[in-house]
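Issue 218. Parser rejects a valid record. Input:
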Amino acid sequence: MDSNNGYDFKLFPKVELHRHLEGSLRLSTLNDIVHQFNLPFSAAELQHLVQMQPDDTFSMQNFLSKFQNLRGFYLSPEIIRRIAYETIADAARDGIRYIEVMFTPAALARTRSYPLNEVIEWVLFSAQQASHDYHLPTRFIISFNRHESPDLAAYVTELAIQYRQHGIVAINLAGNEAEYPASPFRQIFTHARNNDLGVTIHAGEWNNAANIRDAILDYNADRIGHGIHILEDPQLVKLARDRQTPFEVCLTSNLQTGAVTEIGNHPIKQMLDAGLNVTLNTDDPAISGITLSGELQIAHEKLGLSFNQLTRLTLAAVENSFLSPVEKQNLLSGLKNDIQMIHKFN
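Output the parser choked on:
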C-alpha cells in the first residue's frame, strides 16, 4: 500500500472528527429543492453557487461565501431532516466507522426563523435514525461563529447541555479568526466544560500561530480545528506535542480557503514528523467536492504519507474523539483488526 497501486481507500476504515453538516449537502438534494420551490438556478449555476470550482479564487472569503449561499436552501423542516440523514448515509457509504458532525443551529434556522431548539431536534433525531440504519456511530458538536453574538453562543450552549443525552458531546467556535477574536466566548467555553461538554476551536487555519496558543492556554480547547500554522512557532509545537493537543487537519479545504498555496505544500507530514497529534478530516465535503477516502488518497499519493502514518491518523481520531473510554477501546479493537487485514493483503 506504500506504493501508488490504485488502492481503493473506501476499503480503509476511517474515523472523522471535523465535518460540518452545512457543508455536506448533496448536489442532487439541492437540485430537488430548486425544483420543489421553483428557485431560479440551473444545475450548472447551482454547482458554482455552492461548490468550489477549479477556476474559483481560493480564498477564505470565497469559501465562506458558499455557506452564505447554502443558507437560502434551508426552506423547510423536512429539508433540514433530509440533510442530516444524508450526511450520515454518505459518511457510512465512504467507509467511515465513527463520525462527529458539527452543525450550526443559527445557520439552519435563520432563513425561516425556526426556533433553535426545534432545529436541533430535527438534526439530532434524523441523523440518529441514519446512524441506526447505516450502523454508523455518530455524535454531534454544536457550533457557533466568531462574528456572531456571544449571547447567541451562550443560548446555543445551554441547548447543547440540554440535549447531551441525545448525542451532543461538545461545542465549537468557527468562523473568521483573522478578524474576530475568541476572547468574548471565554466564559462560554468554561461553562460548557463545567457541564461535561468538550470544546473545539478553529484556530491557526488562516491566521498565525498565536490563535492556537490562545486556544490551548487561555481557553483549554480539547481539540484544534485545522491549526496548520503551528509550525511557525517552535515553542508552541513543543507545547502542543507535550500536551498531545489534537489537530483536526483538512487537506483540500486548506487549499481552497487559501491557507496553503498548493496541495504539495500542505504541512500535515511535517506536523506528524514533529510529533504532533494529528487527525485527517474533510471539513465540508460537498463544498469541496471530496470524500474522506479521497483525502486519504491525496495524503498517500501526493504528500507521501505511509501506510503506518495513515493508520496513525485513523487511530488518533478514535483516541481524540469524545467517546467514552469503553467505546473508544471497542472501536480501536475493531479498527486495528481490520487495518491489519488490509496490511496483510497489500
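Fixed in the parser; the record now loads. The chain is about 50% helix and 15% strand.
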